[in-house]
Amino acid sequence: MQLKVEAGSGYGSMIGSGLAVNLGASETLPLLIPEDELELNYLKPLTRAELEAAAEGPGWKKFRSRLVLLFWLGWLTILGIAITVIVQSPRPVAPHLPWWQKELFYRLQPVLFMDADRTESGAISRVSEKLPYLKSLGVGVIILDGLFSPKVSLINMTQIDPRLGTLPEFHQFITNSHTAGMRVILDLCNNKAEILSNASDYAQDSLRYWLEQGVSGFEICNADTAFTEKVK
After folding, report:
1. Average pLDDT, stretch 126-147?
2. Comparing 102 with 40, which gets the higher pLDDT?
3. Is residue 202 part of a domain?
4. Phi and psi torsions of 141, nearest 5°
5. Residue 227 maps to a domain
6. Where does the Solute carrier family 3 member 2 N-terminal domain start and stop, copy by copy (predicted)?
7. Does pTM surpass 0.70?
8. How many domains does the chain contain in total?
């Protein structure tokens, strides 16, 4: 049996003389091609030259241009929304705090600046020499602890402990503190009992006196508890 393939027609001719039925000189039969070969022909990848030629087509150029335009429009829209939100957002306003709520406090005992034998006064003057150092640490308020004797009376509370220095030296200390941008508070915890039990004109006059000298305030420990016990 001989198979004849005719180009272009996709059919083959089979010629045979030993058949029982005479089919004539030839009979045309379809030429079968495997399906995998057909798929390979359909899925054949494009070459680089073919891809470049397709990418340079007018349709793809317009598509890419529109994508780039949409990208920049979207980006500018998001940027505009962000700027609008930032501009229209309310500005945070820091609350105004009094100085006793925002300053750094530093407790200081002038008695620690006395001589070893504690026979010579001038501790207040030595404390004044440390003011620049305290200011460099960020201190805003100095609490003087032990400026008065524990046994001092309200009538004599206008005088500091003579072992620590004189009243003019204390005035100079107040002046230097204000020049350095710091405030001074007097610790009256040791004199709390007499102040609270004798809340009279003497106590008010003594406290007013120190306020007039430049003192910014006073510290009285457990004042609420003491007043409660006094009421009971």
Report:
1. 91
2. 102
3. yes
4. -140, 130
5. yes
6. 42-103
7. no
8. 2
